Amino acid sequence: MKRFHWLLIFLILLIPIFVYSQGSITETVDDYTGEGVKIINLEWTSTGGSVSSTATVEPVDGFVFRVVTVPGTPAPKPLYDITLTDSDGFDILDGQLLNRHASNTEQVWPIVFTTSSSLLSLDITTTTSITHVPRFVKGSLNLYIISSSTSSQGTVKIFINKVAQ
Questions:
Q1: Which of 99, 96, 47 minimizes the C-alpha distance to 78?
Q2: What CATH number did the domain enclosing 98 receive?
Q3: How many domains does the chain fold into?
Q4: Ramachandran region of residue 129, left (φ > 0), alpha (ψ -120 to 50) or beta?
Q5: Does a structural domain hold residue 94?
Q6: Strand pairing partners for 139?
Q7: Using one digit for the tens of pLDDT, what is the confidence trace for 116-141?
Q8: Residue 115 CB: number of other CB atoms within 10 A?
Q9: How many CB atoms lie within 10 A of CB 5?
Q10: Spatial separation of the C-alpha atoms in residues 97 and 108, rounded to whole Å
Q11: Which residues are registered as beta bridge partners of 146?
């Protein structure tokens, strides 16, 4: 009987998690074969505060070079977060999709920060530069929307330069 009570308490605590993570994602693909570019459009709807996808249906085999986020109507909360991970669970944009604007379309490019130091008169001067480096992805991508409002919509557009076959 004691185990039953613990199981019941455990299930009651889990119900809000399942209710909170409700939503849907619709995937469409624009394939510009002649140009070697594919755009995966992920239209998401949140009905419980967050959305997560299992994986993109369209396989990715190429370099992600741009991602555009478009808030929909009803809009998500200000500073909502998006994470786009590869099949290994790695965030391919290193957190650049965090704190999205609730009404403006925004775009990011995969980047790499490089730092160089030089010794000048015993002072160390550090220079940081940003380089745009497309991320290679082979397999599926996972989309996670966090901190969106209870009922909201939006679109994530993933631009891919396909690998020549």
A1: 99
A2: 2.60.120
A3: 1
A4: beta
A5: yes
A6: 60
A7: 554 444 445 555 667 788 999 999 99
A8: 8
A9: 9
A10: 8
A11: 81
